[in-house]
Amino acid sequence: MLRVKSLAREELIAFVLENASVLSEEETLAVLDNANVTTQIVGKIAQTARLTGYYSVRFRLVAHRQTPLAHSVKLVHYLYWFDLLALSIDVQVPAPVRRAIDTLLMIKVENLTTGDKVASARRCSQALINIFLYDPEPKVFAALLVNKRLREEDLLVLANSDRATPDQLLMLAHDTRWSYRYAIRKALVMNPATPRAAAASQLRHMSRGDLRRIHASPGTTVYVRRCIERLRPDDFSAVMRRE
Q: Which of 74, 94, 98, 95 shows the shortest CA–CA distance to 85?
């Protein structure tokens, strides 16, 4: 195998053309590992049904930058979920292939067990983040919070929506990575689904102007309004006297 990996380009082309019908799995992988491999060689392997019958070869072809796009996109349909997940976040994989993988993953995600969703949420691409954000299972959201590809804007879309669950909002309020972001704090206060104690705990971090706007918002709960009034009695003394 070491000899195959080190063949010069012309030697490699000749080797593949002569032996394509009898190459072993190991020899095929060695060809794909050769730094001199060309698109033509990889295409020849991808067109040979006996060789693509090996799972390891299919995986390597999808991951390989020299594989013609038509073959890569076809072969993604014959890979397992977690291998697809790994390829979807591998920047060495060509972007069009990653997009095809994301499309397939989004189709398959509904059939996952909760355990597989949790494992996937920890390291998935942006396409699946957008789906897992709205998964009703709290364990999935907890796993998503540690995903390094999760962005503040993703969480803000959720936290400002009526699709966020009390469990998600509470986890967000307690998360050490995200709970100190001002925009997150504000979204937690503004969302009526946020558990009362979690919402109230954010108020002392709000600016005076935002507290006034939150107090005046029709969507703010009575409980949060009263907390704001107690926090800044000088600003809301007239309101408190009227009541």
A: 98
